Amino acid sequence: MLVILACLAILGVIWSLISGAVKVNPVEIAKILVGMKGDNYEIIWNIRLPRTIVAVLVGVSLSVSGALLQGVMRNSMADPHIIGVSSGAGLFGIGVLILFPTYAYLLTPIAFLGAMGAAIMIYMLAWQGGANPLRVILAGVAVSALLNSGISALLTFYSDRVGGALLFLVGGLSARSWPHVEILLPYTLGGTLLALLGSQRMNIMGLGDIQAKALGMRVEANKLYFTAIATLLAASAVSIVGLLGFVGMLVPHAARLLIGSDYRWMLPACVLLGIAVMTISDIVSRLILAPIELPVGIVMGVLGAPFFLYLLRKKGI
């Protein structure tokens, strides 16, 4: 199954490089990637390639983040966007873009602070002798609504500065370039590596708090650790592409159905499936109304909202 998912991820990347207003055949792309300049060198090297790499990194970050949050909260509906973590990153991120644009280079660490603050707030609101998964979702929805109100207030009071924040609200990959790759790459690689190294501990946490404590695990410390990794991954992705929803819910759930709940296998599956979903969604956003380009966040919303309703119905909530 991992081999199949790897092939799907590679197909998504190649298709992303080929597709667009100008059709470029795979042979020419291969030549450009090894350093041979051609007629479409600028299109591939400076436009499509960095955009595709950003799509890959964002897909990995949000998918792994969602998988960790679902494991920590033991709820398959947990997602950085739905439970409010992305909204915390979004509020701080938009605050920087609108109020302090000269500090835009600090967007990722500031977005992380917002995401971590939202996660802690949700956990505190949901705590009642333990964090019940349903209370976490409900607290997350409430916190998300509160933070989104803050975003709306900023956009209302500073309407003359909204231009750069509009795409941030929807989530998009348009005009993403090599500097964005350089910003996102270390966060994605570092966070994903830490998640993979902790996969066995995630499996133990899946047994439940009582069993995990009986095995000698410091449950709350590990929950905080993995929540921090998840929020770092989500915040780094949000700081680059904006409030992109549902990737962190849809991909881990699909990976769990295909691979099972063992995090040693599920996390690599999330990485590969996240790449495939993100690149293919970006292709759809570029081609469905060509030459007009939709923000990829709209495509993910169309895919993710019915899936979320399906999970709600399946759980009988």
From TrEMBL:
<feature type="transmembrane region" description="Helical">
    <location>
        <begin position="292"/>
        <end position="312"/>
    </location>
</feature>
<feature type="transmembrane region" description="Helical">
    <location>
        <begin position="81"/>
        <end position="100"/>
    </location>
</feature>
<comment type="similarity">
    <text>Belongs to the binding-protein-dependent transport system permease family. FecCD subfamily.</text>
</comment>
<dbReference type="InterPro" id="IPR000522">
    <property type="entry name" value="ABC_transptr_permease_BtuC"/>
</dbReference>
<feature type="transmembrane region" description="Helical">
    <location>
        <begin position="137"/>
        <end position="158"/>
    </location>
</feature>
<dbReference type="GO" id="GO:0022857">
    <property type="term" value="F:transmembrane transporter activity"/>
</dbReference>
<keyword id="KW-1133">Transmembrane helix</keyword>
<dbReference type="InterPro" id="IPR037294">
    <property type="entry name" value="ABC_BtuC-like"/>
</dbReference>
<feature type="transmembrane region" description="Helical">
    <location>
        <begin position="178"/>
        <end position="197"/>
    </location>
</feature>
<feature type="transmembrane region" description="Helical">
    <location>
        <begin position="263"/>
        <end position="280"/>
    </location>
</feature>
<keyword id="KW-0472">Membrane</keyword>
<feature type="transmembrane region" description="Helical">
    <location>
        <begin position="44"/>
        <end position="69"/>
    </location>
</feature>
<feature type="transmembrane region" description="Helical">
    <location>
        <begin position="224"/>
        <end position="251"/>
    </location>
</feature>
<dbReference type="Pfam" id="PF01032">
    <property type="entry name" value="FecCD"/>
</dbReference>
<keyword id="KW-0813">Transport</keyword>
<dbReference type="GO" id="GO:0005886">
    <property type="term" value="C:plasma membrane"/>
</dbReference>
<keyword id="KW-1003">Cell membrane</keyword>
<feature type="transmembrane region" description="Helical">
    <location>
        <begin position="106"/>
        <end position="125"/>
    </location>
</feature>
<protein>
    <submittedName>
        <fullName>Iron ABC transporter permease</fullName>
    </submittedName>
</protein>
<dbReference type="GO" id="GO:0033214">
    <property type="term" value="P:siderophore-iron import into cell"/>
</dbReference>
<keyword id="KW-0812">Transmembrane</keyword>
